[in-house]
Specification:
Number of helices: 9
Structural class: mainly alpha
Shape: globular
Strand content: 5-15%
Number of strands: 3
CATH superfamily of the largest domain: Oxygen-evolving enhancer protein 3 (PsbQ), four-helix up-down bundle
Largest sheet: 3 strands, antiparallel
CATH topology of the largest domain: Four Helix Bundle (Hemerythrin (Met), subunit A)
Helix content: 40-55%
């Protein structure tokens, strides 16, 4: 069963549609249409297929990706991706979860991805709004969070990865019982929202494919934090370090993509995380 492969999840396969190259995924799926036949990229080669053939190719890719641990993940993400930080992401639309390594291989094969146009003022405003929170999160990730895992300070890890909770009423003192998300967790939301300002314009009818991809990367980063939090509970330093490393790789691929539209008129590009653990 492929719950995400509905007609809504496959808007790419509309006869006559012309879509950007960036609409293809890290594993190669339909990325454009010519008349009633579709351009499908497979192993770097473009093939012209009918809609039924193109859908069959995509279905097989989803099945193969799922078998490889890069496809459907209902347990972690939910039936409709409702458990993810950003429910509408690349996985929601395509049923695929390309890894940073997949995206690097695709880039080496096909070159730098195309970036949708966004006005300089829009990019500048988004950068001004979200840059402080993003850089604060990056500093925490490579700094306090990394150190807490290396030192086995599990209480600190738990605090740094606090997801927060809504208030369920007031306590005896009349104070709200809600818990705020940690600065590190909050920075993930800022990263995802930043893409709305630099990877698409207000004229786009739907979320661009590359913006969906950056949301996917941030969702996966967020899930690695869940893994690290679980490892902290069991004091499993090996698992915590593995989660941190996976998260760093997702961050760096995200930074590569959002840095593409950041020009000198927008601001300084974000620095890649070079630290190891």
């Amino acid at each position: 069963m492929l719950p995400l492969l509905t007609s809504a999840a496959l808007p790419l396969l509309t006869p006559g549609a012309v879509l950007p190259a960036a609409a293809s995924d890290g594993l190669g799926v339909a990325d454009g249409a010519i008349g009633d036949r579709f351009s499908v990229v497979s192993d770097g080669k473009v093939k012209q297929l009918t809609e039924i053939e193109a859908r069959d190719v995509l279905t097989k890719k989803v099945e193969a990706a799922t078998a490889a641990g890069k496809g459907l993940d209902v347990n972690r993400r939910g039936q409709f991706n409702e458990k993810a930080l950003f429910s509408e992401d690349f996985y929601f639309k395509y049923g695929l979860r390309p890894t940073p390594e997949d995206l690097v291989v695709k880039r080496e094969r096909e070159g730098t991805p195309e970036i949708p146009y966004s006005p300089v003022q829009r990019r500048y405003n988004g950068y001004k709004k979200f840059e402080p929170r993003i850089n604060a999160g990056l500093a925490l990730y490579a700094g306090a969070y990394r150190s807490a895992i290396r030192d086995g300070d599990w209480a600190a890890v738990a605090a740094l990865l606090e997801k927060g909770s809504r208030s369920s009423g007031n306590n005896a003192a009349g104070e709200g019982t809600g818990v705020a998300a940690s600065e590190l967790r909050s920075s993930c939301r800022a990263m995802g929202l930043f893409g709305n300002t630099v990877l698409q314009s207000e004229n786009d009818n739907a979320t661009t494919a590359i913006n969906l991809l950056t949301r996917h990367l941030i969702n996966e980063l967020y899930f690695t934090m869940d893994d690290a939090a679980a490892a902290a509970q069991s004091k499993d330093q090996v698992a915590a370090k593995q989660a941190w490393t996976r998260g760093r790789d997702y961050i760096n691929e995200y930074l590569y993509l959002v840095n593409l539209p950041i020009s000198a008129k927008v601001g300084d590009k974000f620095a890649k995380l070079e630290a190891d653990i």
